[in-house]
Design brief:
By secondary structure, this protein is mainly alpha-helical. It has two domains: 292 residues, no CATH class; 46 residues, no CATH class. It has 14 helices and four strands. The chain has a two-stranded antiparallel ribbon with strand order 1-2. A two-stranded antiparallel ribbon has the order 3-4. β3 and β4 form a beta hairpin. α4 runs antiparallel to α10, α5 crosses α6 and α7 packs antiparallel against α9. It is globular, with a radius of gyration of 23 Å. The protein starts with a helix and ends in a 5-residue tail after the last helix.
Length: 419
Amino acid sequence: MLIPLFQYLDQLDFPGAGVFHYISFRSAFAFILSMFIATSIGQRIIAYLQLKQVGETIRDLDLEGQMSKKGTPTMGGIIIMLAILIPTLLLTKLNNIYIILMLISTVLLGALGFADDYIKVFKKDKEGLKGKFKIIGQIGIGLIVGIVLYLSPQVVIRENMEILKNDQIERVHIRYDEVKSTKTTIPFFKNNNMDYAAPFDSFGKYKQIAGWILFILVTIFIVTAVSNGANLTDGLDGLATGSCAIIGVVLLILAYVSSHVNYASYLNIMYIPGSEELVVYMAAFIGATIGFLWYNSYPAQVFMGDTGSLMLGGVIGVFSIIIRKELLIPIFCGLFFAENLSVMFQVAYFKQTKRKAGVGKRLFKMSPLHHHYQKPGNGTIDALIQWPYQAIPESKITVRFWIIGMILGVLALATLKMR
């Protein structure tokens, strides 16, 4: 909203108005503004939630310090949403299809999580929104994103082309023509563009349509999986918030290099016109999560609830798809991936042992994975994996998971050159 104003002021030679042309300035401004919004309105929203008795319902899982969290305000994801949306609306070009998609995704995913929290808190139903309705909502949002990316004429790429000399890459040239494409970046391979339409060569003229259908299905899966992964990770004070901030830094860098012709050429990745506005959005995302961490760090004054976790995870998935880096998600979202897998393996192992022995056993002392480290491995819990034998304090688990997230983020960025 501010861009047209500053463009007008720039035409009048107003001092300093020209800085709004620069992505770096708008990104820095978005980061600072989002952090300011999160920290300044956070206390007021927390006080309001306390007044309305919007407290977290805690199940007794026999974890150290767990019951002290009872009554802590939840639905704090509203703070994160506002801190993302306001800078994005003020500092980005609102006619950009990618920004429109990110705004829609943020609002819809936040609304889905809000509905879940509302049922838990105000309807006193611990189960919240029924699982099937939550999945339907996530699938619907993924479908909207996939179809818009398919139909919009603004969604194009300029492909990277390798110029060879004596079977060696002499340089990388970014094509001048902008094309609709089902291609994405695949890590670790020299020929790093994978086409979703490639398996459908036998479809003839319908090859590209089949590729887009597969792309849409992958989009639905990623939005659902990453959203649920963030939701499962949100079990310790600051864990999901800090992890999302780290992932946000990785995505900001990936978006920036994908939106810059020279960097895209140097890194041998496709150039995505218009994606530079996403850098501003992701700067606001990072600022919002760090600002929320002011209140969400141990001991938490507020929890984000599903309003925040479903939204943050889903937004990460949508953003990754837009910049064609979704195949890197298992790396930079490795924590979410591990949390998802820990629950799946726990359930599968329990069912298998129950089928064989009549009594179900656990693989981990507790799932999701972060709770496993909060339980002592003294043999009182019938679990296959007893290590660590001493319970680890919550704050230490959180920081160690953040460190792992940083390592995974650096590895994801390193894949751009590890070919």
